[in-house]
Automatic annotation (TrEMBL):
Keyword check for ATP-binding: no
Species the sequence originates in: Oreochromis niloticus (Nile tilapia)
Keywords of this entry: Multifunctional enzyme
This protein's name: ribonuclease H
Family to which the UniProt record says this protein belongs: Belongs to the beta type-B retroviral polymerase family. HERV class-II K(HML-2) pol subfamily.
Length: 477
């Protein structure tokens, strides 16, 4: 191929673009020795208007080979929950694997650190990024594991033939499969979950490496989501960086929530911003001098005045918060946690990483609420904030176990272990979107959630970014 692009790849590797892939080696779900089977005897209620659509979706999944009917007795049987998709014509089927996950043995797969990855890219001039199509469903389950995933519906019992999103060990096994089956032994290639980055110092070297990866993927039975693939580019986004022929630079999306934060217009907003600075500013030298023009405005003795001195101090502190040593380089092998919060008109979140007993920011995010979202109950806004934060930071956390922090105590149960069918409809949908992640949700006092709170109160003016609109597309079939 003289020019590597979508069309030439499709012609040269037609199997890579042909629907749902199927790798050869089946996955066996390993259970803890003290596992106690859970079996639901009665199907959870499905609203009458959705029954026909549920039946159609089950038939479609059966035709794809993703699920099969179960006639024999099984020790395990989980419940099914459904929700309408945005098009209102179809439904999303979700199986509540929470009881099974309590007994699943997790795999621990060491991911390459960003330092290691970026160090290998020295001299790279050409890049391609590949995305696996509906990743988990490309992995078959062994017969004994398939029966573990049995779920009950109004139309009978089914089990998964392919690895479902709800299994807690799925992300790390998928990463292991991609490395061992697709990228093992190849030079100029790195894999992070369903993203594969290929690079070369010359176009010829890049193309040779790309062909090697595509050959391995085709041989392994993996298919690609061509709409998300990029070929022969001089710059691509990967792990929070812009990787280009000119070097590496932080992705502006990582810090835009802070860099583009509007200046405070009230004492309350200023106090919130300074609280964030105080919480994250452990590494800012001479912080007391740098924030003094702003702190002076908090005094009741002083009138509110926002001049050049205050603006310069505000801009300088935002820059400090958005660069090293405050902002840390992402390392997937270190503990991660997400703090998220919602105000009346915005969402805010920060991904933090623990290093030497200190939690430091890796990525910031914020956005305004849409008019519809502003009418949500506060509980729903807080659940939205947590769900949106996980999806925005998905590139960093998918496949890892992380902490999820909220100052809204009821969400610990609602987004934690409570049965899906007992949840209010909107909370239920948020929980379904979170099922692909492995997290422990914790309640912390609002005063300890300063950064997320500030970002939610001073959000970026956009409501929904193009990326936010696309967050759920990879879970549709």
């Amino acid at each position: 191929m003289d020019n590597v692009d979508h069309e030439t790849v499709k012609k040269a590797y037609p199997k890579l673009c042909d629907g749902l892939g199927l790798v050869q080696k089946p996955y066996t779900i390993k259970l803890k020795p003290n596992a106690k089977p859970y079996s639901l005897k009665v199907a959870r209620r499905v609203p009458l208007p959705l029954l026909g659509k549920v039946k159609t979706e089950l038939e479609r999944m059966e035709q794809l080979g993703v699920i099969s009917r179960v006639e024999e007795p099984t020790d395990w049987c989980c419940g099914m929950v459904v929700a309408p998709k945005k098009d209102k014509e179809n439904v999303r089927i979700c199986v509540d694997m929470t009881p099974l996950n309590e007994s699943v043995c997790r795999e621990r797969y060491i991911l390459p650190s960003v330092d290691q990855t970026l160090g290998m890219l020295t001299g790279a001039q050409y890049f391609s990024k590949l995305d696996a199509n509906m990743g988990f469903w490309q992995i078959p389950l062994s017969k004994e594991s398939a029966l573990l995933t049995t779920f009950i519906t109004p139309f009978g019992r089914y089990h998964f033939n392919r690895l479902p999103f709800g299994i807690s060990s799925a992300p790390e096994h998928f990463q292991n499969m991609m490395v061992t089956e697709v990228t093992a032994g190849l030079t100029g290639v790195v894999c992070h979950m369903d993203d594969i980055l290929v690079w070369g110092s010359t176009k010829e070297e890049h193309d040779m490496r790309l062909h090697a990866v595509l050959d391995c993927a085709e041989k392994a039975g993996v298919t690609l989501n061509m709409s998300k693939c990029e070929f022969g580019k001089r710059a691509v986004k990967f792990l929070g960086f812009i990787v280009s022929s000119e070097g590496m630079s932080p992705d502006p999306d990582k810090t835009s929530a802070v860099q583009n934060m509007k200046e405070p217009s009230t004492v309350s907003e200023l106090r919130s911003f300074l609280g964030m600075v105080n919480q994250l500013g452990k590494f800012i030298p001479n912080l007391s001098e740098k924030d003094k023009p702003l702190r002076d405005l908090l005094s009741t003795k002083n009138m509110w005045y926002w001049g050049h001195e205050q603006q310069n101090a505000f801009s300088s502190l935002k820059e400090e918060l958005s660069s090293a040593p405050v902002l840390q380089l992402y390392d997937p092998n270190k503990p991660q946690k997400i703090s998220a919060d919602a105000s009346s008109y915005g969402l805010g979140a920060v991904l933090l990483q623990k290093d030497s007993d200190v939690w430091s920011p890796v990525v910031y995010a914020s956005r305004s609420l849409t008019p519809t979202e502003q009418r949500y109950a506060q509980l729903e806004k807080e659940a939205l904030a947590l769900t949106w934060a996980c999806e925005r930071f998905s590139d960093f956390i998918l496949g890892l176990h992380f902490e999820l922090e909220t100052d809204h105590k009821p969400l610990v149960s609602l987004l934690g272990g409570q049965a899906l069918d007992l949840l209010p409809p909107r909370i239920q949908r948020f929980r379904m979107r979170l099922m692909r992640y492995s997290y422990t949700i914790r309640h912390i006092p609002g005063k300890s959630l300063t950064t997320a709170d500030t970002l939610s109160r001073l959000p970026l003016t956009h409501s929904v970014m193009p990326r936010d609109n696309d967050l759920m597309k990879d879970t549709d079939i």
